[in-house]
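Write out the bound-state structure for NAP.
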Amino acid sequence: MRQENIFPEDILSHQEKPSLSGKWFGKWALITGASAGIGVAFAEELASGRTKLVLTARRKDRLEELARRLTATYKVSAEVFPADLADPSAPEKIFAFTKEKGIEIDLLINNAGFGQYGEFTSVEKQRSLHMVQVNCHAVVHLTRLYLPEMVARRRGDVLILASTASFQAVPYISTYAATKAFDLLFAEGLAEEMKPYGIRVCALCPGSTESEFHAVSEQEKFQRRVETAEKVAHTGLKALAAGKSYVISGLGNYLGAHGERLVPRRFVTRMAGKMFKPWNK
Ligand SMILES: NC(=O)c1ccc[n+]([C@@H]2O[C@H](COP(=O)([O-])OP(=O)(O)OC[C@H]3O[C@@H](n4cnc5c(N)ncnc54)[C@H](OP(=O)(O)O)[C@@H]3O)[C@@H](O)[C@H]2O)c1
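---
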């Protein structure tokens, strides 16, 4: 279940030049949703900056393979803890795992999430409820578990995956867009609250991004103007390091999210509804 590869920091040469994410050089980052897409890209970029990693998601084989690869390539420690965040007890189990290992998390990346395309009443009830659990409940729970020790240390960073869907209602992915609006506002509020403690909190808002997301959410036909997961992850880490409370990845996405503020909300929702309406409705 666990990947036990400890590389003491003192084996690293002082000449080694950390990348952007060298900001977290030698520290521990916890990444949820690390088995695919943007989560893998976070892991790769952070490992290249010699950040030690705790990787979690449901697919243990993928996590173990990623941990093996990153450990071999970058000589970083990578721990694996498989967990299903739809289970309300999962955040406590992840927290207990890091405590048991004596790991201090300096960077928490709440990345795991999924959507589901379709009319609200046609989406399986349990799937909608799990979406809220994974995209919102687990985010609050993990953040609530790790923030107190960051506050005590006067040090720590939290990155939360929101979306361009956070900026308006989106019919036919109504629950997903609402969860992402929650994530954005939660991060922005916390960013302000945590400033006096020297803790940074940032919401990363990607638009369409290359990953398994569209297949999982059954919305492949809306995958357009796609950015790479690597670019999106880099944008998020850069914004967090710069102390921004949110960042929208991609200029087109930025203009879209802010441009729509100039028109009435009802109009924006209606337009989104036209774009997302199933062809047979
Ligand atoms: N791709 C996009 O276009 C896009 C746009 C805006 C925002 N986002 C956000 O970006 C984040 C990452 O998504 P992605 O694009 O990288 O999608 P992805 O390739 O589908 O990856 C999603 C990750 O979340 C994990 N996950 C899903 N359900 C989980 C559960 N019940 N318990 C634990 N882990 C779970 C998956 O791991 P397992 O399946 O192994 O559990 C996977 O590692 C999400 O929060 C998403 O809302 C994505």
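---
Residues 125-153 form the longest helix (29 residues).
The first strand starts at residue 28 and ends at 32.
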